[in-house]
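// run 5 | inverse folding | seed 20
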């Protein structure tokens, strides 16, 4: 049996922020300046641990979609490797 629990961080603050803002995954994908995919956004929301580079892409897409400056620590409760 394969134990991937170390790869899961649980639902992220990004998910609640997106729900509050009325955003769906496609909104971040469309706003992304760096080619973010729907699958990557879904993984980010549900807490599949991402690399630091991918977290930065999600943050850039959020900032672009919302026109505000958020930091990675505001969207994720862990820091990627």
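// decoded
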């Amino acid at each position: 049996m394969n134990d991937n629990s170390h790869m899961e961080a649980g639902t992220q603050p990004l998910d609640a922020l997106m729900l509050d803002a009325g955003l769906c995954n496609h909104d971040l994908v469309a706003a992304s300046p760096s080619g973010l995919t729907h699958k990557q956004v879904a993984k980010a929301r549900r807490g599949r641990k991402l690399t630091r580079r991918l977290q930065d892409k999600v943050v850039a897409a959020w900032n672009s979609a919302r026109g505000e400056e958020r930091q990675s620590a505001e969207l994720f409760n862990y820091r990627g490797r």
